[in-house]
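stage 2 :: seqdesign
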């Protein structure tokens, strides 16, 4: 939707510092990416005691290469709504990696072109955005050219940055931007009332459903047991129990809604599969259909897999026939501190284990076997689905 903020009188420094004090007292931390304007916001955020609770990182991606590195592509226009949103999303993902476990985080960004030491033919404008697990917003302002000097335009952009972060953090603010009667801020917001819906829309990377509640991009510790869970069965639970005993760590189930060979799961089907789990079980719903992307999401975790999955994991056919790509993917997983716990499976009249997996040289330390005495289950989800279909 689109809203308008009406112009008002300029705020004074005490107003800005009072808002910063409120932000430091709120349970939200942020990563800030600021380019073109907003230097006074940096000074205000760092100039009030308590900044270490609020500011995870500040960056100034001023050059074109720095901006491209942040957002992952070379923007056609550096100062635009879309670029501001992409900067905020990149900052949010950075915040997820830097935060203390459980701390709500936001990515905040500003991209602007304002008065400088030479005349500009184009507009003076700024776009400020935030990104959180619950939604995003972008605030766009075109300045009246010539009304202010560089410091004056920077001050307005800086106040807009503070207001944007306050909205992301749920902090009330009445900080006046100091706009002229001819100026207005256009605001475009997107909000999600449910983390699973946010995941289905591609807004967040995973939704963790635990103890009957869902959280967007919540941290996961211990082990992760991926599967399609169509249906969830006793073998999944027994495997999770065996892995938990071996690792002395909790096990989270993981359902990826994307598959290399199939269209993404629709939201009703996602919810049907998640509903199979007990309130005592945790399931992370992701869009990560390959293990190196799962490792990106869950650094430090151990992935609990079966012999058949392990065999595919080290098969060059799944890497465009490239041994180099295979090793690169596994090294990326290693770089995240992840590894694999492998359960045996019955196949072609024999019980296959990790010993039957042709692991590339130098990568054996990534894999550990679950003994047959600790876990064996010869019924698969496919067999259960076939049996259910046969009864219909």
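stage 2 :: out
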């Amino acid at each position: 939707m689109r809203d308008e903020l009406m112009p008002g009188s300029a705020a004074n420094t005490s107003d800005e510092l009072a808002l910063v004090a409120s932000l430091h007292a709120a349970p939200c931390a942020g990563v800030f990416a600021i380019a073109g304007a907003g230097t006074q916001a940096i000074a205000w955020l760092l100039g009030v005691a308590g900044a270490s609770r609020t500011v995870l990182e500040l960056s100034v991606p001023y050059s074109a290469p720095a901006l491209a590195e942040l957002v992952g592509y070379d923007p056609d226009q550096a100062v635009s709504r879309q670029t501001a949103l992409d900067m905020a999303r990149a900052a949010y993902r950075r915040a997820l990696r830097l935060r203390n476990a459980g701390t709500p985080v936001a990515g905040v960004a500003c991209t602007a072109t304002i008065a400088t030491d030479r005349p500009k033919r184009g507009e003076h404008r700024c776009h400020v955005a935030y990104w959180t697990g619950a939604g995003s917003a972008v605030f766009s302002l075109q300045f009246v050219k010539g009304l202010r000097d560089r410091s004056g335009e920077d001050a307005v952009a800086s106040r807009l940055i503070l207001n944007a972060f306050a909205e992301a953090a749920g902090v009330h603010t009445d900080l006046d931007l100091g706009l002229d009667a001819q100026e207005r801020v256009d605001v475009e917001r997107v909000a999600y009332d449910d983390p699973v819906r946010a995941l289905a829309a591609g807004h967040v990377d995973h939704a963790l459903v635990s103890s009957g509640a869902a959280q967007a991009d919540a941290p996961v510790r211990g082990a992760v047991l991926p599967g399609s869970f169509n249906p969830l069965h006793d073998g999944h639970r027994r495997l999770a129990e065996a892995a938990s005993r071996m690792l002395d760590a909790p096990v989270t189930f993981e359902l990826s809604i994307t598959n290399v060979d199939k269209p993404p799961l629709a939201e009703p089907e996602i919810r049907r599969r998640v509903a199979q789990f007990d309130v005592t079980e945790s399931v992370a719903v992701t869009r990560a259909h390959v293990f190196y992307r799962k490792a990106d999401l869950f650094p430090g975790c151990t992935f609990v897999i079966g012999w058949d999955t392990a065999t595919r994991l080290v098969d060059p056919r799944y890497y465009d026939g490239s041994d180099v790509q295979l090793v690169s993917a596994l090294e990326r997983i290693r770089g995240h501190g992840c590894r694999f716990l492998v359960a045996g499976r019955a196949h072609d009249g024999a019980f296959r284990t990790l010993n039957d997996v042709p692991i590339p040289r130098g990568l054996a330390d990534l894999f550990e076997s679950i003994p047959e005495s600790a876990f064996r289950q010869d019924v698969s989800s496919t067999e259960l689905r076939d049996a259910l279909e046969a009864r219909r």
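stage 3 :: structure notes
- The chain has two domains: 2-191, 205-391.
- The longest strand covers residues 105-113.
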